[in-house]
Amino acid sequence: MKVIVVGASGRIGSKVTEALSKGHEVIRVGAHSGDILCDYTNEQSVRAMLAQAGKFDALISVAGGDSQFKRYSDLTDDDFQFGFERKFLAQARLVRLGESFARDNGSFTLTSGFLSHYPNEASIATGPLNSAVDAFVSNTAPLLPRNLRINVVSPAPIVEPGQERQGLVTAAQTADMYVDAVEGDFSGKVLRAWGGLPSPSE
């Protein structure tokens, strides 16, 4: 399969790329490095990236730096807007614009995060947007044409191998879930890499 990985040079993205490269053609996309450069927050940049990449079988969004972490009392409208445009809108845009480039039976895999259900005092501009991405995936899945699939991986904080425990996972453990989403046949699912934390009922 031909797989586009947006955010391929990141901590998780590099492991996703490494895992998928063993059996698939991977197109690495990033803001500053990769096979194709793209600002996924800019519609024209995304359109140009898709045109350059061409038809694909799977697109993964695992870009980082997508939200602000501040105490609730310090948050401004701009902080919420920053996260909305990166965490939610940019990922929804990849699906909306990418749909016409995806081959039949292709897939999209997005990224949310565990702060949707395990908040802290600095996560109020982040956790609700993770929930929005999860809802976008579950709501959009039955609407996609041509047997296209969409799923989302929800990671806990990433740590180095040997440091994983409840609520902490390695990049490689998380990458396995993206591979499952690409190579599986399911759609509309939230894959929770939460390091042993209990998951909410779906």
Describe the structure.
With about 200 residues, the protein is an alpha/beta fold. It contains 5 helices and 9 strands, in the order E-H-E-E-H-E-H-E-H-E-E-E-H-E. The chain has helices at about 10-20, 45-55, 75-100, 125-140, 170-185; strands at about 1-5, 25-30, 35, 55-60, 100-110, 150-155, 160, 170, 190-195. Strands 3-2-1-4-5-6-9 form a 7-stranded parallel beta sheet, with helices on both faces. Strands 7-8 form a two-stranded parallel sheet. Helix 1 packs across helix 5 (about 170-185), helix 2 runs parallel beside helix 3 and helix 3 (about 75-100) runs parallel beside helix 4 (about 125-140). The longest helix has 22 residues, at about 75-100. The model has no long low-confidence stretch (mean pLDDT about 95).
Helix content: 25-40%
Q: How would a crystallographer describe the biggest sheet?
A: 7 strands, parallel
Strand order, largest beta sheet: 3-2-1-4-5-6-9
Low-confidence stretches: none
**Average of the residue pLDDT scores:** 96
Beta-strand share of residues: 15-25%
Number of helices: 5
How far apart are the termini?
Answer: 30 Å
Shape: globular
Q: What's the order of the H and E elements? A: EHEEHEHEHEEEHE
Number of DSSP strand runs? 9
Classify the secondary structure makeup into a structural class.
alpha/beta
Rounded radius of gyration (Å): 16 Å
